[in-house]
Amino acid sequence: QVQLVESGGGSAQAGGSLKLSCVASGRISYLNVMGWYRQAPGKQRESVATITSGGSTNYGESVQGRFTISRDNAKNTVYLQMNSLKPEDSAVYYCSARLFIGRRDYWGQGTQVTVSS
Predict the structure, then answer these.
(1) Residue 27's pLDDT band (boundaries 50, 70, 90)?
(2) Which of 26, 35, 36, 37 to pair with 19, CA 20 to 30 A apart?
(3) Is residue 93 within 8 Å of 111, Cβ to Cβ?
């Protein structure tokens, strides 16, 4: 069992920056892939960025070059640095984690990001 808590959301102007954090607790020794997903009203949830336990990353095409995912295994925390924000980045951002055991994914409660033009 893993619990995820996101923080760092808020409002920003286009071109600005925000940094999201996600702290994991519970069976943290089994954390495998962690990632950030987002969902805007009326749209499908999409992958923003993922990172493996070893630090290998993948990014969604729409955020490539603007967002950076990182993790601090000692702190059981994953981060999403968001730069050059665009209005279309506005969404609820969710932290997700997959373990080395089991098949389910774990999700945080989400944090709202709003970007104004």
Answers:
(1) confident
(2) 26
(3) yes
